[in-house]
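Example 3.2
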Amino acid sequence: MKLIPTLMLAAALALGAGQALADPQFLVGTYSADGHKGMTLLKFAPATDRFTAVRTFADVENASFALYDAKTGRLYVTDEIEAAGQVGAYRLSKDLKTLAPLGVQPSEAGAPCYLALSPDKTRLAVANYFGDVVAVFAIDPKTGAIRPGPQVLHAAGEPQAAFKAGHAHWVQWSPEGDRIYVSDLGHDEIRSYAYDARTGAIGAPTTAAALPKGAGPRHLAFHPKGRYAYVVAELANTVTAFRREADGTLTALQTVSTLPAGFTGKSQAAHLVINAAGDTLYMSNRGHNSIASFRIGADGRLTPLQTIATGGDWPRFFLLDAPDQRLFVAHQRSNDIVVFHLEADGTLTATGKRFEMSRPVMIVPVGR
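Structure, written as tokens:
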């Protein structure tokens, strides 16, 4: 028997007779096209593996990344405009029917593509793909609005020869909250900045890890136990396992290909996620159009587990939905979201279920 029905039955019994599990709801961000823009609220029915569109919030032109704080209802969203990006703050009502604007700020450069909240939720960091800029904004504690005048972070050295400037593609605080890490595709490095949570002061940039020239690091994921970190390289199509050191640097342990042996086509690695148990890593390949999964050993090293076709084109983002044991893949080019079951051994099973929508590029859980 598969794990999914067993979990659903147990959860339903725990709620008591006459009650049912609420269907989870997700905000899906899109790039504007074909008359569609903004974010669409979708409801997912685990019993049938089907999405249903509920409503659209057309407040953002290119909603490529978002963060949601369920406790306060605050939503932070990038507007990925190449020339002059923006980041907005909103409050989503408890019934998920209204999205109240709390203000928009310039992201300080072009194409903002990733957001991170500090552990105490007093700062918002924005990675801009263009302009060699990460902007760190203060957040108004009473309203959740983004305050103007951010601290602007740059790299210290020159970018690799293929690029005229740095391309910050990911930003996040360390698990301890004492450092800010940035993945810079243009400089082929992971940078670290000391961070003082009490004052918000940010130190000078240091290279936490240098990747091979032309690798193009895109996203990083910290292991749930904090000992290891994993970086997916967009151009090299690799995942590198690192050991985190006390001084904030990262020591490379192993680099593995994200593509199967013998593949000769063009592909670009994209997103990666580690499950809560810390024993499986998932990442997406755009071009090869697959999800590759790896078993994480006690020593932090990776062993290939599975590579499965996503059933669509250009899987820029995917979401691991642990409560319902699903994985949702957003295909930017084939205009759909494809549903996979997550099995007990960490592998994925295709359901054949897809939901069509224009250029989905991010999925955020907002209620159940």
